[in-house]
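Translate sequence into structure tokens.
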Amino acid sequence: MRIAIVSDFYLDYVGGLQTSLREQIAALEEAGHYVRLISLARTPGTEYGLELTPAWTVPGVLLPVKGATPALIARLVEYLRAEAIDVVHVQTEFGLAHAAVSAAHEVGIPTVHTVHTFYWQSRGLGPLLVAPIMRAGLQYVLGRRISNLPLARRAPDRLLRNVTLTLALRADTVISPSAHQGDDLRAAGVQHVVVVPNPISRSPRPAQLLDPSARPRFLWVGRCEPEKRPLVFAEAVLDALARTGDGFDVDFVGDGAELAALRKLAEGHPSITVHGGLGHDAVIDLMDAASVVALTSFGFDNQPMTIAEASSRYRGVLYCDPKLREGLAQSGYLATAPDAPALADALVDLVTHPEKLTALSTGARADSVTFSGETYVRRVLAVYESATVEGRPRRGGSASKP
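Result follows.
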């Protein structure tokens, strides 16, 4: 099959979506399929397929922007025909993604949309003040009106969730990597939603089960941003270290707005190492050295790539959001609450009962099949076939200007 995967985001930005895209492409190519990536790039080239120059980049969040103009749609129509693409698989919700869907409809090929997050969150007064301007700007970039369902209390969050919904409603079939997000998309009016977890198709070396004699070590990896809650976990770590006589070690990996505050909390504690941002290979090394990976977001994540990566390395996951289920049937340890005291209790329990750590590692080996490249390819090909059937009555539509 000849597949075009589409992303508005820069691929060199470190994030779960970018990791997922690379793993998807690797899994599909290893299975013998032809994959082209249509994306925005800081310095466009041809390494992945069709790389385009953004009109501008939103400062701070490094979000590239390119409008769904008739000229862009026409260029994508030409590209899809030249590459004889069978299916367009969009994985973002902004101008390039909308242009790709419009081009696919014109060419007459099915469209699939993976929703990587329906749970946009903002903080502070600034986003509230600019939300009306954001709506007008986004409608111009998308080339169509944005729905305005009450999907969140804060206006900017509601707007961005409706941006996601607007594209999901245009696609022939929608993929959600998690069941709970799939339920929320259906509740918002998306009819054709299929759950397909993100894959991990490549490994730098064979995974090993946890050595039962190893000193307990925990790894927190993610963006150091409020929604990922690194400071909450750091407070839990300090509490648990005091209660266990410094009975374990912790590595924090990631960059972001809360990194400085995290370093300050960890200062003077030899059992805590704050690395900042690291490359993927270094993260895998730390994951292999860890006993358990900690995931401390609550009410934000869809299906984090952290879970898939931990499972692929045979490491359990300490988590606190009960909605995160995929891949954690045997490898997940759910804290009783999302606050620091409950996370501290979980750390103490795992450190004082090391047999639970080895059981989570064994469980992760069993759960890892959920995220294998072979499993992903089988599931996503079924989605492509379904989209071909579902989309036949819908093709031929064009963009509607706001």
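Note: The mean pLDDT is 91.
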